[in-house]
Every structure is written in structure tokens, then in C-alpha cells.
Amino acid sequence: MNKHLLGLLVAALLLSACEQTSTTPSPVPIATNVPPTATSVPEPSPTPGELPVEVIKDVPYVVDGDPLQKLDIYRPKGLTGPFPILFAIHGGGSNKTEMSPIGYYFAKRGYAVVSINHRQTPRYNYPVPVQDVFCALAWVHTHAAEYGLDPARLVALGHSAGGTLAALLGTIDAPGLFMSDCPEKLPPADWVRGVVAFTGIFDYPACAAADTTSAGLREYMVTYLGGEPDQVPDVWKQASSITWIDAQDPPFLLIHGLDDLSIDPEQSRSFAAALEAAGVNVELLLVPDASHSQITRSEQSLEAVEAFCARVWGRP
User: Which of 50, 228, 257, 309 has minimal Cβ neighbours within 10 Å of its Cβ?
Assistant: First the structure.
């Protein structure tokens, strides 16, 4: 493997620094008073009081599509539903199994988790991953009844690059731009009722302009978006969820570890401030001592997600 491709793959994992420092207090309430518990992955076997889980694997969301265009469904075993849905999107360089711990954790508690694969850089660049998440989301809405799912109670959730994509599902108000090759259709409105974004990039131009943005991350963004910011400025803006914000966006929960050396927490702070300024219901959780990879394993994070879902559409 040549050094150029290796650099892209490493950057696709978003393990490069997008470091900025900010001493300006965020106008959005921040819960930072409780230290995180970086717990191990929950075991598939339920403990007393938890539900058993069944997993339906490798369901194509595009018939005769790319082998990557598949999803897994985690749901409580032996129950009929319909279950509220967490639509889970993995990070760069990973696959749908990254969300397996979240799938088991929430299915044991009465939710369904739909964990999707999406095509990604360097082989597939923007807008392909965005097209995939919209196609998968449309599949869920179309086939929900077959799997005991309740699309009226659907929250999109993603980590890292998946957090970036989840935020786009919540902010883009013209999904048709990304769905020309999708066999299924979205409802005219309310395709997601809330968004949970762990450590995403929400403003590509701002990330690129940061003094300490690593060469690897910058190379990843340039490759993914098809050119430098001054060469394809409209693409850089269109790919940034901060560009699409309006008052009709669903509630957001943004979660970021304060020890994240891959994506600076300023991305979440700034995005939260922009959402709040537009009148969107937004919560920002900054978790002390949590790194980029630890954040989805923090018990504090998982409890915050469950509480957020309860506020958005009630407990399962």
C-alpha cells in the first residue's frame, strides 16, 4: 500500500487532530460536571430486567446494489413492537459492526437499532455516503412494518464521520438532491424526529481553516470533497450541516469528549451555538476525560441518549 493511500485510510478513521482552542463560553448549556465511565461493551446476554435481543443481519437497503449497501436490525426478541428506532451510522474506515454495542445496549431496553453500512472515501467520495444514508433511511420508512419498527419515532445517531452524516439527515431540507438512485422514497416531512451526533465535523471550511488541522485530516477532506476549499467552495458548504440549519430542524443532542484529539470539541460547540441561534432545540454534552473512541462507550453518553429519546418521543 503506498503512503498516499495509507494516509487517506488513516485520515478516514478521523484519528487526526482538528485541534482548536476556545476560551469563549458556549451559549448552549453544557453538562460537564459528571465524570464519564468508559465502560466495556455490554454483553449480548441480557441481565435481569433486560430484554433478550435478536439480530437480523445483512439486509440490503438497495436491491441488487453495492455489497456495502446493507444494514443490521437489533430488536427485542419475542416482542412484536412497533419499536422506536435508533438509526445508527458508523464512523470512517469502519462498518456497521461498530454500532453493535449500541445495538445490543438499546435493544435490551426496548428499542430497535438499525445499523447501516455506507460507502466511503477514498473509493467513494462525496456525495456517495450522503446518498447511502438517505437511501437506507428511506428503506426503513418503507419497510418498517415488516420488521416491527415505528418510523414515527426515529432518531438518527452517528459517531465521527457517522455523526457528520447523522447531522445532515437532520438539517438537509432537500433530500431529493441525494436520492435520484434510491429505490425507496422518504415521507414528505419528519423523516427523523431527532439527531444524536457524536464527534462529527459540521463545518468543513472552519475545520480546514483551523491552524492546527493536521495534514492527514486536511488531505482526507480535500479528497472526500473533490478539491480545495477555494476550488469547490459550494461543495464544502453543501457537505456541512451548519449550512443547512433552519428553525424546522428536529432536536439535536451533540456529544463530544473533552479529550478528543481527533476532532476538536469546538466543532460541536459552534454547531450547537448555530442551532440554538436558529431556534432549534439542542443539547450539548461535553464529557471530561473521554477520547474520540471512548465517547460512545461512556455510560454518561448512553444515559444521555436514552434520556434524549425519551424527551423526543417518549420511552419505548
Answer: 228
Q: Which cell numbers in the block locate residue 306?
A: 436514552
- Residue among 220, 204, 200, 207 at smallest CA distance from 296: 200
- What are the helix and strand counts (H, E) for the chain? 10, 10
* Amino acid residing at 179: M
**CA distances, 130 to each of 13, 121, 182, 260 (Å):** 17, 12, 12, 24
Q: Is the pLDDT of residue 8 over 80?
A: no
In this prediction the pTM is 0.85
For 138-251, list the strands marked E by DSSP: 149-159, 194-198, 212-213
Q: Which CATH superfamily is domain 3-313 in?
A: Alpha/Beta hydrolase fold, catalytic domain (3.40.50.1820)
Domain range summary for the chain, segments of one domain joined by +:
3-313
Quick one: pLDDT band at residue 146, thresholds 50, 70, 90? Answer: very high
User: Three-state SS for 21?
Assistant: coil
Q: Which three cell numbers stand for residue 63?
A: 436491491
Residues with Cβ within 8 Å of residue 278, at least 6 apart in sequence: 245, 246, 247, 249
Please state the length of the chain: 316
Quick one: cell of 26? Answer: 458556549
